[in-house]
Design brief:
Structural class: alpha/beta
Mean pLDDT: 96
Strand order of the largest sheet: 3-2-1-4-7-8-9
Radius of gyration: 17 Å
Distance between the termini: 39 Å
Helix content: 25-40%
Strand content: 15-25%
Largest sheet: 7 strands, mixed
Number of helices: 6
Shape: globular
Number of strands: 12
Oligomer: single chain
Order of helices and strands: EHEEEEEHEHEEHEHEEH
Low-confidence stretches: none
Amino acid sequence: MKIFISFDMEGVAGIVDWSQCIGPGPDYDTGCRLLLGEVNAAIDGAMAAGADEIICNDSHGTMNNLDPEALHGRARYVSGRHKPLYMMQGLEPGVDAVFMIGYHGSVSGDSSVLSHTYNPSVISRVELNGTEVGESGINALVAQACQAPVALITGDAQTITEADPFLPGGERIVVKESITRFAAASLHPEAAREAIAEGARRAVERAAAAQIPVPAIPLPARLDVYTLTADMAEVASWVRGAARTNIRTVTIEGDDPMAIFRSFVAVTYITRVAEGR
């Protein structure tokens, strides 16, 4: 079986501060070790259930947060910033199951540690078919296009709740309970890794038995992206497929989930550059 892992960082047990997610520094080094532990746990669990090919896409920050030699199972490591499918680069038709490891809540939802939606300096809210959505639901558009079930999601409870409308049936592992945006009660890293490994094992077994459905976001789909300023909405509207629908809102819609996602990624890139980041 072929497994694709998209991993972020903010949803990892023990991580509660940007210093643990943005280097350089000792706190960032600690964050990277915690992240590696959870990614390797997911790989171990998947391989225990029969997975024989693992693709890991680094989806956080500059997207080169791990030591490639330290990945278990000789997993392929997709890294670097300029990726057309961003957090989902490496997912393609033929993948048997998708894992989302270390994911976090949306910027506009309930308090979730280090919550944001792709770019917190620009995006204040995203809705998919009228429902508030975080990065997991946005990325589900790619899984749907590739007909791959999202079999495992890990993070805090808010992350899991936000994923439910778009990613039914997969395994959910809560590794911490957010108190505020900068505080959480986390499982011990070893306990979190054990839970993730077991969840990954179940996820692969259930995916092999066709017990987890592919995302079924109703099409045509509509993605409404709310920006913090009118200027950013104007810049976003320069992207093909994105239409300005209000002072601070652009809308991307259509019958092709991959095209919707690609336009959204372009919006995140162009607005990031326009604000000087």
